[in-house]
């Protein structure tokens, strides 16, 4: 998730931009840049120094000429192109007059860039965003005003954007537009602002407005006007903001965990964007393995830790079901010391939100030493895992601040299922129309996660009623089992209560001895083809006095007879259910932890990334 900011009509443009970018640091970034624009002159500075970029930019801007009343700024969270200065925003057009900043993903950037290059445009970066600068340049060359040029350009674009453009030949104007990626406008007397998030302009603007999808806004010192993509005037919705800065950084939520749970639909959508070429071929972000090698894969081994391990376990079912290749899922810290057997044709998949978990890094190194090819699934572009893998699929969940992983998990499942579909395509184990249908279904999951989020209040109420409980079992079958493991981990790490995830079919092999009044059994029952078996497991534990909480689909009419509490979710394709079913489990763990007065963003004893053994 990049951060963007812009201002027109300011008497301290540079300070406004730099302070605003600093306020967006919590969005995570690996580079930053600004452009100052006045009649006939565009001045730009860009720095790629990781989390020091904004600080380094401040130093660089000491060389900036004075007297600019307008400018734009950007913090980049790389999705396309390495986190280097050449890829940092703002990007310029060929004339150097037009500067753009962008948050989102231009899905059809490759074909647009090919067309623009065939018409003589020279590109300087490896990003998807730069196409916007050259598209606007072409429209401006036809004599269109900047707002019309941006509108015409965006009609050619597929994907997500919060974009802002300036042109030294139409200075003191910023034109901005939004689709999926957030964008707000702020006003104060004689000055107009834009930003991806309220914190960036909270202490400067006095009124705030939300920009909706496919709306374009022209900002001038006197204020703004807005149109839709067809060019018809629209009114922006004014926001009522009485937040302090800390609340604003959490998007109005009480803590980052709550914000990140609510960002899950966006995390899935962003992870799935730009994954297919026009001919339907599924692509990875970085590919240093040939299709032939992938086609010849004989066995897959997934190595990961914690929540990422649970995502890997979901992937096992999907890869075996769709790509018909055997999958083992290993705990990274075990794999690396087990003298693992790596036969020819072994593909190892390393899954890590941070891309820096030492056990997972060492595990893939061990695998490579033994001849395996490695695919990395990470949330951080350029992370150790990404750099040391032969191919990479990035989750695009944006910065995950809370120690407890939530949006990264659903994004990992989505990315791993994309990988499974790619293997199925190459091995021709699924007909193209099935791959199409599954990919379309995957794209529908974000909406279903959104619907699961709407039931938050009921889940919190159930948690409140169970606050005194001390012992929890989370049970499930098939992909409901890794979902249960993830639910148990969330409860453990957030509330410090003892919880175990177990295959439901294993209860009678021991754990049933622990079931007695007061023990809470949370059951994931949404896998319809094992539903009957789950119901008999619930009967088993109910008969021994357990309190039963069931995650069940909206249309399940049998569950009420067996469950004390039901957490409803929309039904979906079985292999997609972990992304939806995990939502009430996350909220349940969050609510229990809040009820116990825990620090949900910073649980005791834990770190966000375990870079030591
Ligand atoms: C999950 O909520 C925990 N924060 C932890 O288990 C985490 O998933 C694990 O440390 C792996 O981290 P990674 O994904 O960055 O490798």
Can you tell me about this structure?
The two termini are 30 Å apart. The chain has an eight-stranded antiparallel beta sheet with strand order 3-2-4-1-10-9-11-15, covered by helices on one side. Strands 5-6-7-8-12-13-14 form a seven-stranded antiparallel beta sheet. A six-stranded mixed beta sheet has the order 16-21-20-19-17-18, sandwiched between helices. The protein is of the alpha/beta class and 613 residues long. The radius of gyration is 25 Å and the shape is globular. The model has no long low-confidence stretch (mean pLDDT 94). It is 35% helix and 24% strand. The chain folds into three domains: 3-249, Glutamine Phosphoribosylpyrophosphate, subunit 1, domain 1; 260-445, Rossmann fold, CATH 3.40.50; 455-595, 3-Layer(aba) Sandwich (Rossmann fold). Helix 18 links the parallel strand 24 (520-524) and strand 25 (547-553). The longest helix is centred in the last third of the chain and has 22 residues, at 432-453. It is built from 19 helices and 26 strands. Bound molecules: 2-deoxy-2-amino glucitol-6-phosphate (AGP). 2-deoxy-2-amino glucitol-6-phosphate (AGP) binds at residues 305-308, 352-354, 357, 360, 403-405, 493, 609-610. Residues 305-308, 352-354, 357, 360, 403-405, 493, 609-610 line the site of 2-deoxy-2-amino glucitol-6-phosphate.
List bound small molecules.
2-deoxy-2-amino glucitol-6-phosphate
Q: What is the CATH topology of the largest domain?
A: Glutamine Phosphoribosylpyrophosphate, subunit 1, domain 1
Rg, rounded, reads 25 Å
Tell me the number of strands. 26
Structural class computed from helices and strand pairing: alpha/beta
Name the shape in a single word: globular
What helical percentage do the residues reach? 25-40%
Number of domains: 3
CATH class of the largest domain: Alpha Beta
- Going by CATH, the homologous superfamily of the largest domain would be Aminohydrolase, N-terminal nucleophile (Ntn) domain
